[in-house]
Design goal:
With 71 residues, the chain is an all-alpha fold. Helix content is 61%, strand content 0%. The chain has a domain of 33 residues. The longest helix has 23 residues.
Amino acid sequence: MISALTGEQKKELNELRFRAQCCTQVAVSGSCATAVALELAETAMETLLKKLCDLNVSFSLESLSFSGNHA
């Protein structure tokens, strides 16, 4: 659960989430995604997911909301 994390852990997760979100937006917003942009987005997401795993954070997929063309 996120609520059990310290303030510093929450801050770090928010920073990783923001980085992953920004990298993904850059990768998919252009007329053609570059390999570098896609790799950066993938790496940022892997880093976030690894940190969530390291902190034993779990969540239900039903709680996720998807939007846009990729939902």
